[in-house]
Amino acid sequence: VQLVESGGGLVQPGGSLRLSCAASGFRFDNSWMYWVRQAPGKGLEWVSSISTGGLTSRYADSVKGRFAISRDNAKNTLYLQMNSLKPEDSALYYCATDVSGATRGQGTQVTVSS
Fold first, then answer.
1. How far is C-alpha 105 from the geometric centre of its chain's CA atoms?
2. What does the mean pLDDT of the chain come to?
3. At 6, phi and psi to the nearest 5?
4. Disulfide engineering: 47 pairs with which of 35, 52, 74, 94, CB 3.0-4.6 Å?
5. In what order do the strands lie in the sheet with 9-11?
6. Is the predicted pLDDT of residue 82 greater than 90, yes or no?
């Protein structure tokens, strides 16, 4: 399994970012996919999930209404559109093949600061 996240960066509060995750080495189109994050000094936090075909998605209360998960099975790629970003969204963001984040990529840093 290989998961490679990209798209993070420094953004001002209220701004937007779109994260991508390129997946390989497993049946991406047959796998639920997840975004998890880890802020400094804290444990992994589940952010969002998406079903195999993309029809079902779920979000943590902290991001509901601001983040949108999606996937392109033809490209083996997972996305996370993040809008109205807040300083508390600052974290290392990982895509994962399980909700606990046990199998995840190297992460992409998101920093929300003025």
1. 10
2. 97
3. -155, 170
4. 35
5. 9-11, 108-112, 91-96, 33-38, 44-50, 57-59
6. yes
Tokens, residue 60: 């943590």
Tokens of 33: 């996919």
Q: Give me the half-sphere count of Cα atoms (radius 13 Å) on the Cβ side of residue 30.
A: 4
Please state, in angstroms and rounded to a whole number, the distance separating the CA atoms of residues 104 and 95: 6
Written as six digits, the tokens of 86 are 């807040």
DSSP the chain: -EEEEE--EEE-TT--EEEEEEEESS-GGGS-EEEEEE-TTS-EEEEEEE-TTSS-EEE-TTTTTTEEEEEETTTTEEEEEE-S--GGG-EEEEEESSTT-SSB-S-EEEEE--
**What is the predicted pLDDT for the residue at 44?**
96
| pLDDT at site 23 | 98
